[in-house]
Design goal:
The protein has about 375 residues and is of the alpha/beta class. The radius of gyration is 22 Å and the shape is globular. The strands form two sheets. Strands 1-3-2-4-5-6-7 form a seven-stranded mixed sheet, with helices on both faces. It has a six-stranded parallel sheet with strand order 10-9-8-11-12-13, sandwiched between helices. The chain starts with a helix and ends with a helix. It contains twelve helices and 13 strands. The chain has two domains: about 160 residues, Rossmann fold (3-Layer(aba) Sandwich), CATH 3.40.50; about 160 residues, Glycogen Phosphorylase B (Rossmann fold).
Length: about 375
């Protein structure tokens, strides 16, 4: 048995090295004359889904739409290092532009090229995180490592036929200073189909939820911990995220995360878990003072439970969708927290219901599909 397992592992490594199995061919089982390479995430097409990120269902939906436009769709992971290609492609759908991608010899010269942006311009994002880290160093005298630095996009972006972004005009503007952009189209992120609940006996108007992924300083968790750990601060913060994995951050903020009665360190939470259900039944607001996003998925996930969103303009939400912070100065964030904590529960109930209905109207897979199909039809 051990020998068979070792042989299987060796074969797997050889196939991976050769790039065999790194591509899912013709995921829609169509028989068209034209082929499109879909460079995004392969897992959803292999039955690997999760409930803590919206990109799985979105990837499946985009591939379905492309299939409906007359293309056979082959799928690879955007970060694959080796792929065995067996054809030339008439079109490309790419989420991360590279100067010399692994498929460059397999894309026809007249192929249609579409780039899909799920964040702000990496140049903007990288500099924003560096500023946040510098500000933290000035406040607390500690130098933490960056967590969200990504490669800058090359000028090849300007050769694409279309740009589709999950974001608003502000997010799109972060690209305009650096690139001459192709025609651009915006799509809304997708929330979750939760049942609405608001029990005034359980809800507490002074409770806020931070729900964020990697990059605690990038996301503004440091700012929130500095505020909520102030002496006798009259509000509570529930912290959901993998902050312990960022050892330098956790070392610096362990005291705030573990020693304050009004700060509740929850850790990583599945959006569909009983833990998230319980937290969302207590909190009235979700807050994310991030330095760079694009219609942040964490925000709309919380909105799906009726939590009223407070976020930075960089998160990619318009004024009719969220409470948008003027800036992310500590005084500004603190002031907004204190302001909404003083709302009466009747007003909070109304705003919570509006938030929930907004998600059902604007941030759903049907709306996403309509917007995405409209954009793709302009090119394919």
């Amino acid at each position: 048995m051990k020998i068979k397992k070792n042989v299987a592992n060796i074969v797997h490594r050889i196939l991976k090295k050769l790039g065999i199995g790194a591509i899912r061919r013709n995921v829609n089982k169509t028989q068209y004359d034209k082929n499109l390479l879909f460079s995004y995430i392969k897992g959803p097409f292999e039955g690997k889904t999760n409930s803590f990120h919206q990109n799985a269902i979105q990837a499946l939906e985009i591939a379905r739409i492309i299939g409906g436009l007359g293309y056979n769709v082959d799928v690879i992971d955007f970060n694959s290092a080796k792929v065995h290609f067996d054809k030339m492609y008439d079109a490309l759908f790419e989420i991360q532009i590279k100067e010399h991608p692994i498929y460059e010899r397999n894309i026809k010269g007249d192929a249609k090229r579409i780039v899909y942006m799920t964040g702000s311009n990496p140049t903007f994002s990288n500099e924003a995180e560096k500023r946040r880290l510098k500000e933290l160093e000035q406040r607390r005298g500690v130098k933490l490592q960056p967590r969200r630095q990504v490669p800058r996009y090359p000028k090849e972006l300007e050769k694409y036929d279309e740009l589709v972004i999950i974001g608003n005009d502000y997010n799109l503007s972060t690209y305009e200073d650096e690139f001459i952009l192709p025609p651009c189209f915006s799509v809304h992120n997708t929330g979750y189909d939760f049942i609405y609940e608001f029990d005034p006996k359980r809800k507490r108007k002074d409770c806020f939820l931070y729900f964020g992924s990697s990059g605690c300083v990038h996301k503004g968790l440091d700012l929130l911990l500095d505020i909520f750990s102030e002496k006798d601060f009259p509000a509570e913060l529930f912290v959901c995220g993998s902050y312990e994995k960022e050892e330098d951050f956790y070392k610096e903020y362990k005291n705030e995360l573990t020693k304050f009665k009004n700060i509740h360190p929850i850790g990583f939470v599945d959006i569909k878990s009983d833990v998230f259900e319980e937290i969302s039944n207590i909190c009235c607001f979700t807050i994310l003072p991030s330095c760079s996003e694009a219609r942040a998925g964490a925000v709309v996930a919380c909105m799906s439970k009726g939590l009223i969103p407070i976020c930075s303009k960089e998160c990619g939400y318009d004024a009719d969708e969220a409470i948008v912070l003027e800036n992310c100065e500590i005084s500004t964030i603190r002031g907004k927290i204190l302001e909404v904590s003083n709302w009466n529960i009747e007003d909070i109930t109304v705003e919570s219901r509006k938030t929930y209905e907004l998600v059902r109207e604007r941030f759903n897979i049907t709306k996403f599909s309509e917007e995405m199909e409209y954009a793709l039809r302009q090119v394919l």
